[in-house]
Amino acid sequence: MNILITGGAGFIGSHVVRRLVTNYPHDNIINLDVLTYAGNLENLKDIQDKPNYIFVKGDIGDEALVDELFKKHHITHVVHLAAESHVDRSIKDPLIFLKTNIIGTANLLQVAKKHWSGDYNGKLFYHISTDEVYGSLEMGTDMFTEETAYDPRSPYSASKASSDHLVRAFYHTYHMPVVISNCSNNYGPNHFPEKLIPLMLHNIIHKKPLPVYGKGENVRDWLYVEDHARAIDVILHHGKPGETYNIGGHNEWKNIDIVHYLCDAMDAKLGRSSGESRELITYVTDRAGHDLRYAIDASKIKNELGWVPAETFETGIAKTIDWYLHNQEWLDHVTSGAYQEYYEKMYHE
Ligand code: NAD
Ligand code: DAU
Q1: Are 245 and 146 in contact (CB under 8 A)?
Q2: Which of 27, 84, 163, 343 could join 105 in a cystine, given CB atoms 3.0 to 4.6 angstroms apart?
């Protein structure tokens, strides 16, 4: 397989790249990433010299570049993760979300169609999406299934929903083999500290305020990032074209309970007195249009492909906390901006 992975320098993408490069030495992995603020090649230091791995700095919306990559590397599979991914940024500046997530996806589909439409055999366009396309649940036991109607409510989720529709349109209209997965909130190593869990860990370490939106009552369903990367591996190799798979950890937590959990675990790790970090909690203005609750029914991927998460929240968060405590240089480089110099250093000096 010659696999074009987009967004492979980001949080989830870097775990997917590492997994595929390591586990499938006979496949070729081409990582196309434009390195926005969220792209960090330090995430891939350990595999950057592997013979089956190539990094290309570029935009998924650049038709000539994507066309050249398909030609040069005889791309057979696309694993599409590149996106603007942060809901709060989408509320401040929606247009870049539409450009990257919708137009960028459309460009990849167009180029794939151009190269594959003569013979779709052995080809697959795998689009990575989010549970946020399904909207928001009330408190209770309802869950999102693959049949839940789309109801996106933020510019981010609307852009992802739009890209999902485009991918399905290429399946129905042009018979392109596609597969989509919609995953719940990920956490784990290399998570950019603008998202809830890494932001809280960073701020606890530095004794800075812990901003909790609204009353902290909103619920998210958390999945350890390595479990997501393994699900992507399984779907890439065994998923059925035209299908959608929901991925989730059955790990629903109220935000305030997570923040309390992180404060207490970090106090114990850092030798601080019990309750010290909880003092840093600051309730701030709620996110506009804040979705109340997400919860994923992941029974289809379990029943059809045999995937279940390996980590509970407690085991995954313990690994995550240890990773952040042992990789403070990574965190410092992200907060100082030094990580953005890595590409020039590694690829151009
Ligand atoms: P991220 O923001 O950490 O990484 C996104 C990556 O895409 C970055 O490396 C960035 O440089 C790259 N990128 C952005 N615009 C690009 C462009 N125009 N061309 C090429 N590369 C570009 O995101 P993430 O959290 O790793 O999410 C990856 C994917 O998974 C996204 O599609 C997201 O919607 C989806 N997803 C994320 C979560 C989650 O909890 N983080 C859950 C479900 C689905
Ligand atoms: O559900 C999947 C989605 O999960 C992905 O598609 C997105 O790419 C990913 O960013 C994530 O979206 P969320 O908005 O759920 O994640 P975030 O970490 O931004 O926020 C999680 C919850 O915590 C949410 O209810 C808002 C709240 N929050 C967040 C931040 C950053 C706070 O209370 N304080 C904060 O400082």
Answers
A1: yes
A2: 163
One of 3.20.20.70, 3.40.50.720, 3.40.1360.10, 1.10.443.10 is the CATH number of 2-187+222-250+290-312, namely 3.40.50.720
Per-residue model confidence as pLDDT tens digits over 245-302: 999 989 999 999 999 999 999 999 999 999 999 999 999 999 999 999 999 999 999 9
Supply the pTM of this predicted model. 0.98
Kindly give the distance from the C-alpha atom of residue 152 to the centroid of ligand 1, in angstroms, as a whole number.
Answer: 18
Helix, strand or coil for residue 214?
Answer: coil
User: 6, 35, 36: which to mutate for ligand 1, most atoms within 8 A of CB?
Assistant: 36
- Could you list the beta-strand ranges (E) of the chain: 2-6, 28-33, 53-57, 77-80, 124-130, 178-183, 185-187, 210-213, 219-224, 244-247, 252-254, 281-284
Starting at the edge strand found earlier in the chain, the sheet holding 219-224 runs 185-187, 219-224, 252-254
Per-residue model confidence as pLDDT tens digits over 171-225: 999 999 999 999 999 999 999 999 999 999 999 999 999 999 999 999 999 999 9
246 lines ligand 2 (CB under 6 A): no
Polymer length of the chain: 349
**Is the CB–ligand 2 distance for residue 184 below 6 Å?**
yes
| Percent of the chain residues topping a pLDDT of 70 | 99
Tokens of 312: 């509970």
Q: Kindly name the residue from 84, 131, 164, 221 that is annotated as catalytic.
A: 131
Non-local (6+) Cβ contacts of 220 within 8 A are 184, 185, 196, 252, 253, 255, 258, 293, 294
131 noted as active-site residue:
yes
What integer is the mean pLDDT of 116-139? 97
254 lines ligand 2 (CB under 6 A): no
Three-state DSSP state, 307: coil
Ligand 2 centre distance from Cα of residue 87 (Å): 7
Q: Can you state the angle between helices 313-326 and 255-270, rounded to 10 degrees?
A: 50
